[in-house]
């Protein structure tokens, strides 16, 4: 578990790539430049860690493409202290980015294998979520609601209503919606029943599954 000058150099090249692709948020770029993404992957794949591509991890899941992580994080507009719900902990990389941005992160993972691995791993490298939960992301986390932001890191065939209802007024939900290809969608809660919707082009995610525990 080493982070070397070589890795730091590779991260800086990745940050330069993201800037060229249009990511502007300095805090997000700093987080990507700081977090050792190679530690979130099997050691045999170090060379792939700082390429702007998604990569397979355990339980048939993927570690998202850095551009996607940066894009979703930028849409959330996180301020330090924001209470954020993440659906799909996965490798924990997106969670680490949110923590680095100063968010208080509650994260739900439905794959037991990944949940166990990531729960141990994140604190070991210094990233502490408020809570990591093994459960069904479609239900959100009503006990802890409302949230300033909710981020979904898997392709959802539809927008789960519980997630919209768990946003505070002014809060933001960022979710990729669709079956084979997803449209990155942002919902901003304007009132008890009013939501503003924005769409941001096509992305590809592993599917968001429910009640599969």
Automatic annotation (TrEMBL):
SUPFAM superfamilies: S-adenosyl-L-methionine-dependent methyltransferases. The active site is at 64. It is an enzyme of class 2 (transferase). It catalyses: [protein]-L-isoaspartate + S-adenosyl-L-methionine = [protein]-L-isoaspartate alpha-methyl ester + S-adenosyl-L-homocysteine. GO terms for biological process: methylation. GO terms for molecular function: protein-L-isoaspartate (D-aspartate) O-methyltransferase activity. Belongs to the methyltransferase superfamily. L-isoaspartyl/D-aspartyl protein methyltransferase family. This is Protein-L-isoaspartate O-methyltransferase. It comes from Winogradskyella marincola. The lineage of its organism: Bacteria, Pseudomonadati, Bacteroidota, Flavobacteriia, Flavobacteriales.
């Amino acid at each position: 578990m080493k982070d070397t000058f070589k890795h730091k150099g590779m991260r800086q090249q990745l940050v330069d790539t993201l800037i060229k692709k249009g990511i502007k948020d300095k805090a997000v770029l700093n987080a990507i430049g700081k977090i050792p993404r190679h530690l979130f992957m099997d050691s045999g794949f170090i060379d792939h860690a700082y390429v702007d591509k998604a990569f397979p991890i355990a339980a048939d899941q993927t570690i998202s493409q850095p551009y996607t992580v940066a894009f979703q994080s930028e849409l959330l507009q996180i301020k330090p202290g924001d209470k954020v719900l993440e659906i799909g902990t996965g490798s924990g990389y997106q969670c680490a980015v949110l923590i680095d941005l100063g968010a208080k992160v509650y994260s739900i993972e439905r794959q037991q294998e990944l949940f166990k691995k990531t729960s141990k791993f994140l604190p070991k490298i210094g990233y502490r979520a408020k809570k990591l939960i093994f459960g069904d992301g479609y239900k959100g986390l009503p006990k802890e609601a409302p949230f300033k932001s909710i981020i979904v890191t898997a392709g959802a065939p539809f927008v789960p209503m519980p997630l919209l209802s768990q946003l505070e007024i002014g809060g933001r939900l960022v979710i990729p919606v669709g079956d084979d290809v997803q449209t990155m969608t942002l919902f901003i809660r304007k009132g008890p029943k009013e939501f503003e919707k924005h769409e941001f082009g096509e992305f590809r995610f592993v599917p968001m599954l429910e009640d599969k525990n």
